[in-house]
Amino acid sequence: MLLTRRVGAPILFPSPLFWDSPPWHTWPPIVAEAIFLAMQSRGLLVSALESELGRTEDIDQTSTESSARASVSDTQAPLNRKSSPQDPTDSELGIPRMLPYRNERYGLADVDFDHAMVVDMQLSPRRDHSGRFAYSAMQLGRWEATPADQPLSGGGWIPAMTLPPDVSSLDRLSSKVAQLRVLAPDAAIVLSVTPEWIDDHLADLIAAGPDAILIRLGQIRMAGIAFAQFTRRLLTRVETIQKVPIWLAPPKSLAKHPLSVSDSIKTIALGVSAIAVDSWLEEVLEEFDEIAAPSAFSADPLRTVTAEVEEILSRRLDPDLEHFAGLLSTLVHEQPRDLLGTFDPEIAQLLDLPCIGRL
Description:
Blueprint: E1 2-3, E2 11-12, E3 17-19, H1 29-41, E4 45-47, H2 64-69, H3 90-93, E5 97-102, H4 111-114, E6 118-122, E7 134-136, H5 137-143, E8 157-159, H6 173-183, E9 188-193, H7 196-207, E10 212-216, E11 221-222, H8 224-241, E12 246-249, E13 252-253, H9 261-270, E14 274-276, H10 282-288, H11 301-316, H12 318-328, H13 345-351
Parallel strand pairs: 3-4, 3-14, 4-5, 5-6, 6-9, 9-10, 10-12, 11-13, 12-14
Antiparallel strand pairs: 1-2, 7-8
Helix pairs in contact: 1-11, 9-12, 10-11
């Protein structure tokens, strides 16, 4: 997938697939590291901070307290980067990685910008498992590298913000996008929101000048046809304002089974540029949760954990990735949407698609 940026050279992604919300804080750091490397090696764009992977050595982290109160822009802070200016960035090397830029900047380090192929500026806070728009002590503990035997002060939950502290209103969002381009000159800047932003603020988001817009529907349950209708309406609306690549994190299905590989391909054919694979990974995550941290006496702990991770992925994910790649290779038409059709007249009318097989 080739993404044309507003500023700078285009970025070539190995695949239009990304892992949007990995629960890094639920795994021991060495397990998180092994999972991250294994997923990245499969060409998936993976969302992660260095702190979320437990890589805390030689990183000047942003503290939780100062992040929550910050009102000074990132460009005013010193950038103590780990890599030298001569070193190629991960984006230049084609290593897929997405930086989750939360409004509070929890866990964010300067070096994270060096590793980003995409900077995901998250304007919409997400609900946690309890339904709160908040971060748990477990998440904050990972971001701030809190020792397991020392409780985190300040309570068990920290509320999430809607806009960064240095963005007073949406009409000033373009300056924040420009700032992130300075911090990560080789990365694409993506604005991510939940669907309620679309009705009133789509034009504002496009006017901010991002390289793409990511719509997160992962916490909504929706029938497949309703999702397809939403996608068609969204893409049509975007084109009436200004054509911008749209990425989607699909909704949860009302049916028993989650969004399938073929459903993802159909969404790409409708005109979406990239799609999240989180719904494919439910059974994978269940098995990841069973991986224990290796013994302290293990000669090569990371290798031990990696072997377990690879075994799980070879059974649970690799067949889906191979299926997706095969189907994607058939979307060679100049207008992939012209390849879509249905045998159901009602669906054909709803989605403005050809009805196939009518006699």
